[in-house]
Amino acid sequence: MPELPEVETVRRGLSTLIVGKTVKSVNFDWPKGFPNTPADVKQFLVGATINAVRRRAKVLMIDLSSSYSLVIHLKMTGQLVYRGKQAFGAGHPNDSLIGELPDKSTRVDFEFMDKSHLYFNDQRKFGWVRLLPTIDVPNIEFMKKVGPEPLTDEFTANVFIERVRRRANTTIKAAILDQTVLAGIGNIYADEGLWGAKIHPSQRVICVSDSKLKLLHKELRFVLELSIEKGGSTDRNYVDAEGKRGSYIDFARVFRREGLDCSRHPGVMIEKSKVAGRGTHTCPVCQKYQS
User: Which residues are catalytic?
Assistant: First the structure.
């Protein structure tokens, strides 16, 4: 599933590509992925102009001039890919992972007045696009429960510690994966942050010192910011708003490096196990479990 950096990369791309465009038509092939009434689509979407593209945790919101918003969750295999009115291949970098669109995974096709398109692709059909009054978006159950954004100025180390301590008896990895503790962290950046802070993912929160948690706060912010800079982590289905790959995985320090040397301890191989139900990467020297 795309994590915060991937969704933020898509948001930034769409902000430069579709803001100011007016929706001409909408076509979809999967009602569960586009659960909106024809009347609402006609009244509040078709003919509306895009005012802004926002993100909360792993959810995107496209705000419309009709005072409605498209709320989009990419889930596991969702993609939002923009195509200009020019033929495919003109002006698209060679590293685009997406060919001609629409294709067999395209669930929703938004056409704009200038003949450009925004495609919502979703191979496994878990993602969705909901049309809601903008004022009601904060009342979605997920929005009411989700934790603070980890890259805001308000998300200080003290705030992080206070929220993580609520999960005192769980593992530290499970705690930071919990979207009610903080928003947007998934498996990749949990592993990366914990390696950076030299904390074993199976360590119970109650056994992790405040100084270690402060370091984890710093490391999580570091890896998230670096990944956004690198365009996210291309992992199976993720692409940015133009169908291009992200390069963070080339800079990963522990994730998917099992069997390779730890960069802090040459000759010591990264190990892979399962923690909090997820594949987990650790260095046996850097991240010793404290009983």
Answer: 2-3, 58, 278
